[in-house]
């Protein structure tokens, strides 16, 4: 198990290095420079060059990147030249909002998807199953920027059940906080529900065809006991993988709901920094998201060993995950 | 999918033969032309036809003012059927021309991704070793990164335009095809006819192009509608954030974003483009699922 973990960690580090370096190159290719943004309309080529030099932007990309990396390893992601706030501080300030949204979305989708998948798998190809499949197909075609305005119209404008915009921090009470987080979390969750339902339904149906399930039924165990005590755990590996992937994706993809619902999260910071060409902040956030993404994926991979003894015993054995990445990217 | 051959499973499959014949894939393929699939193909044909015929249809230009602003949908002149937007431009015309953008951007970048992904995947799956390691790492790097963040960074660095969108979206969807092509190539490379071709003295290039490629292409093509749907969503997300197609060219995502400002008073301004985008993505997903079940051999073998 240990060599497996080490290899995974090494690979993750390599991916992080490549991602952050690519971001550096991309940002240095940008036609407009940050100096132009800071100096505004009255900038002369000389003043732009002077500011670039004082910000260190005139050095070769590789030098800039190594300098950035050296500081980043010490937890210092630089200071935004526009807001003059340290990037690390800005990220930590906004992280709780994004994290809460992502976790809430994940919880909502699991709470809805797991019972639907169990019902579907218990009665495959019956009318109930087909109805649930049709419903999740609908969810799959509703991205957050479509679901958001529609949810706002019905739940906030027409029935006035939830606030349409804005964020109530946790310090002002759990109830109001959850009320302001519910609609954005639901808007982001709909697509995930469909993915979770598909994966769990397929795996459950596969497991229910196995001999040990037939044996359990033959012993006279009830259908629901077999479903939850025998079939559920071996069927939940793919679900675990895509839960991890979708948590990582929700953190990265929170940009849409955060800008739609005007929430002070990481995504909104990224969007404004991109518009302002605040290279240092963008690079910091991108690196942070990449690290979060890679760490979550690696944790999920290693987590297999905890719930699936087959992986623990044979490190070289193939993982039982089926087409999980495909589901995640589609 | 393994088939166990013990007596118990044989017994069970015999008992259930009337209800569940054969493998699940075949069972699903049998009810292939359900109402939803019919509707999906109909909607795709309709949207494509409207987008292609847009210049000769009797509709106003997408940037022409045709009536008072914020006019709700009503029966009457063709340009006012779906209402007008904040400036009084025809929603119908903007939906149709926006469809042009979505479809062209979605399918062109998906095609680019198929070509690049197939090429890299074939090489990785056939030669293995160093090439495989490099290409798999490339795919992993691209995948280990939220596609939307990548796209935002790209369209922020190079000011938004259609070519930039195309390249960014193609880049974001290439790893999916790399993985698919690689897995399929590895599967086909060990078949007898490949060994036979090699024994007859065929070169690696010939084996790749004449023996393996024709078998890999149908599988990848079956995934095209699914990827196009995902790309239309990605394009919509970018336009929604103001990083997509630059105005005044209409796009569905941009229309939803513009309409959100007037959600309280004129909800149709959001609902019309939202419904169009939803139906298109839904139809592409259905058609894609249908094609995939028929042509994707990776799931069946």
Mean pLDDT of chain B: 79
User: Which word captures the global form of chain B?
Assistant: elongated
Of all protein chain pairs, which has the greatest interface, and how many residues does each chain bring to it? Answer: A-B, 61 and 60 residues
- What is Rg of chain A? 24 Å
Weakly predicted, low-confidence segments of chain B: 1-29
Walk me through the structure.
- The complex is a heterodimer of chains A (about 325) and B (about 300).
- The longest helix of chain A is centred in the first third of the chain and has 36 residues, at about 85-120.
- Chain A contains 15 helices and no strands.
- Chain A has about 325 residues and is mainly alpha-helical.
- Chain A has helices at about 1-30, 35-40, 45-55, 60-75, 85-120, 125-140, 145-160, 175-210, 210-220, 225-235, 235-260, 265-275, 280-305, 310-315, 325-330.
- With about 300 residues, chain B is mainly alpha-helical.
- Chain B has helices spanning about 5-15, 25-30, 35-55, 90-125, 130-145, 145-155, 160-190, 190-200, 205-240, 250-260, 270-295.
- In chain B, α5 crosses α7.
- The termini of chain B are close together.
- At the A-B interface, α1, α6, α7, α9 and α11 of A face α1, α5, α6, α7 and α9 of B.
